[in-house]
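Me: I keep going back and forth on a fold encoding question. No explanation is needed for now; the record alone will do.

Assistant:
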Amino acid sequence: MLRSLAVTKRVLGDALGHFNNDDGWALASHLALSALMALFPFLIFATSLASFLGAEAFSDTAVHLVFDTWPDQIAEPIAREVATVLTVPRGDVLTVGIVAAAFFATNGIEALRVGLNRAYRVIDTRSILWLRTQSLAFVIIATAGFLIVSSLLVVAPIAVDIAQRHLPWIRPYLGTITIWRFIIASSVIVLALVAVHLWLPAGRRSLREIWPGLIFTLVFWVVGSTVFATYLGYFSSYVTTYAGLASIMIALVFLYIVSAIFILGGELNAAIRRYLDARAKVARLPD
């Protein structure tokens, strides 16, 4: 028991110490702002592409996938603004605006990469062309994933209706579309976390090496967002302080909290790896 406490203290001390000493708070700010700046271009580009391909209901699905895992007090104002932006007809995004949309969308991916490289304490020597190409691939894959999920959510109610007619006993287990949207959105987050931890930072890591940070991120995402939502509900002065900018400022603070938790997840993985490497070296020493 005492040994476990000592190991936990050492690992957490290493992770938190490196986060604090290596500009983790500043990186979280950079990541939060980059994520907010990347969100609109990505959704605008993805929605325009979906409309071009005939998926007219994509915008509603995209908004749900992005914001269903956010607390209502944080998600509702900005989701409403995003939905308004996405309903504006756009013909330029797939022509002239595609370069700007891709650039700002990939900036969000690059911010994730910088945060993870610093957390894992590695230096990225790959060419900028390779990095930007990989980031663009992430954006395109995410768009394709959203399109697939959008199509599934259109087909799902039909399949549920058929299942209920032929298998009445299954009705209590199907839940509502809101529950399924939340489950799908949560699954998208988990898959995204696995992908960015495995492939964005320099070096190679196995799924076994990254799972502690993933669990940490998911658990404290829920805790942090719940605490912040409670604060907004009872003690917030954001609306009176920032007036029309309140929804943006609330989103920025929320993304800052999530970004810090995300980087700390990488720091935790790196600290565990350093501890295991140090223990392995001690074990190899001659008696």
